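A quick aside before the break. I want you to see a complete sequence-to-structure record at least once, exactly as it would be stored in a machine-readable document. Don't worry about memorizing anything.
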Amino acid sequence: MLSRRNAMLTMAMSAIAVPVLGAETAHAEPDPWARANRIAARVRGPRFPRRRFDIRDHGAVGDGVTDCTAAIRSAIEACHTAGGGHVDVPEGRFLTGAIHLLSNVDLHVGAGATLLFSTDPRAYLPLVLTRFEGVELYNYSPLIYAYGHQNIAVTGSGVLDGQADEDHWWPWKGSGDDGWEPGDPSQAAAREALFAQAEQEVPVERRQYGEGGYLRPSFIEPYRCRNVLIEGVTIVNSPMWEIHPTLSENVLVRNVTVNSHGPNNDGCNPESSRMVVIRDCTFDTGDDCIAIKSGRNADGRRVNVPSEHILIEGCTFRDGHGGMTIGSEMSGGVREVFIRDCAMSSPDLDIALRFKTNSVRGGFIDGVHARDLEIGQVGGSVIDVNFFYEEGPGHGFNPEVGRIDVRDVTVRTARRALNLRGYADAPIRGVTLTDVDFGATATPSVVEHVEDLVLKNVLANGEPLIVP
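That is the input. The structure line, written in tokens, reads:
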């Protein structure tokens, strides 16, 4: 499987000078995987000067107790001022609050190093511009954040530990499964207020949350950044979404391990971002492993920036609500997504390929291409395109979903092969499955309001798949 991908990457290098096709040309080009190869060739990660800045030289102490926030900030500023390079986190356990990256800086967390992020929410003040579940606001800083910078990275073989658990961050979800008990603080009131402000078009600068709001921050969030690399690190115990590139371009996430099972602990959520490659990563999560997003409801339509030209390859998916997911915050649309040479399996992986939206989210999905997937065990459906997520139909913003092509997939066991549920007045348009063996399935597929469903050599339980 990997040898095929390596060969494709080799061929792609000759195409590096060819621009990525726009949506119009994408429809006309007969081989969509040529576009995937161009994405692979162009998104290569920034390079940095050989200057190195050891955080210990700026006062950091790796005892797990001393607050190293100021020392890390000083090293980043020195590196940036010098013209760029690497800020080294050496072996040890370094306690810190929010880390804000600057242009031309690689935060390198070396072997044996752990960045321990403070569980004190005040360590993530002052407020910064961010997104919470697809809605813009001013809130706690993400644990690692950059706004409007270019050539930035978080690399190394060390550990990023958000220290979230049933006593810190997770209870704010307001769920009894995550340490919350009746009477404890929760995000419910602030979340409802934020969503109402967005619907009422309250200016973003007036959407001020933070203390008293209990809206959890993401872990790593480059916001309006260009040329971003996240490589090699292991991420554990996140407050919420782990890797969240927002309104960013040319993002490479490579050889990262995410192991975090808290609420809304999505592994990687590119949102309103383009030219993104997620390669050779392992996801074991409390929510979707990868979820591609583009803003929520009225706020997503206001910003109106799709996620597009995204390649996922060589990844391993374990626990998660969905393996490769699009939605539900996809109001700005998603186009041209490619996933190849990936493995998925877990009794706690609900859905392998998941597309979730409704008539409140709206948005579009145009062009999803999947091939060469090895899927072991899935608890629910293998492929799930569901317009009935949460609010369902009747709210005026019907989604448009089509051009989904899945081929060369093997599955060992799943509850159901397909769950495809469109609307009578907004059907799913264009799903093609080729050379797909769904293995052993326990219940029949569900297919409602789907136009142009094409099955070519598709099996379930050893027989040709029969759909309603």
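Two observations worth writing down. The longest helix spans residues 69-81. The chain has six helices and 32 strands. We'll return to this after the break.
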